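Q: I'm writing up a methods section and want to include an example of the input and output format. Could you take the sequence below and give the corresponding predicted structure tokens, formatted cleanly so I can copy it straight into the document?
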Amino acid sequence: MLDVEKIRNDFPIFNDLNKPFIYLDSASTSQKPLEVIDTISSYYNSYAANVHRALYSIGEKATDEYENVRLLVKKMLNVPDSHSVIFTSGTTESINLIAYSWGLKNLKKADNVLITEMEHHSNIIPWQLITKKTNSSLNYIPLSNNGTLNTESMNEQLLSSTKIISISHQSNVFGTINPIKNIIDKAKSMDILTLIDGAQAVPHLKVNLAELDSDFYVFSGHKMLGPTGVGVLIGRNELLEEMEPFLGGGEMINKVNMHESTWNEIPWKFEAGTPKVAQVIGLGAAIKYLMNIGLENIHNHEQGLLQYALDILEQNENIILYGNPPERGAVIPFNLKNIHAHDLAKFLDLDGICIRAGHHCAQPIMDYLNVSSTARISMNIYNDENDIDILAAGIKKTISTLN
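A: Here is the clean output for your methods example:
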């Protein structure tokens, strides 16, 4: 079991004892430990400089710290040597980069892109845009009633025209942990590329990319105790070599004249302009923090909280729970009978309880559930059973107030 009180002491936001604060919205963004905050401050205070360009000492230190984070990413996710680590602004940019740089060049009229009905908008809209531009088609693996995917619908006829499958490792709404290894293996047997959105998985699971062997894997820093504005794209080298740059500017070039340009080596070919130096260095501190606790320990802690929360919420007959996937992360979507999710969230906030309410950037899921929005709780290492008890009491209080 994790020592939650000790962990909370690492997070400044939990140290104000003058007001209650229970944070249950980590699937949206996570809180930041002091180690991450201090690491970013140290860069700005002590060695703020651009990377890859300066010959003076603080520039060299900034470059070393920045590039060392690639090694941390490789270590944390066991990234194969056949893949490169690229820094982006987040999962959204990473998926857009692949959709534009790979999709525009490789998708043709007879081709198909396959995603799922449970995707975040950032894994839907880029493919809608690119398939329209290339006159290719976009198809969806449908949802099942328990919040899992109906993978049996991936028939041979559909897959025969599919060029890439882009799928979430873990759903941000149901918490469903998808069978991505099986999907990757099936795709590989038919020469179909795979892109895995790991934004919800990397902070909570031990991800081994050498075993998964996907062609692309992407995630964001701010969901894994790191800063906003930074993400990671991990891609197979030969694919990245063939892709055109997503953005043009400084650093991503090799040679420029008045008529044409040549590109830098990967990964720098895809990191145009001044990089997110402070954010990347902060991400490195977050990775160290997570690895020090241990991803297996984090997963086990959150699984215990998930089951405790489900047991508590199921006892309230006014609560409607959505989905029941057999493998899931610590995420629970629900609604109250006759009370809008937004009203619940505002009432809970009066008692210092933070939950999510809305469509969670997954409107197709809301359409499937035939609701406009849901409430959602998502747990992390700084949550414990007492948080769930206070949440349950807050829900009962809201019901008695509004009904």
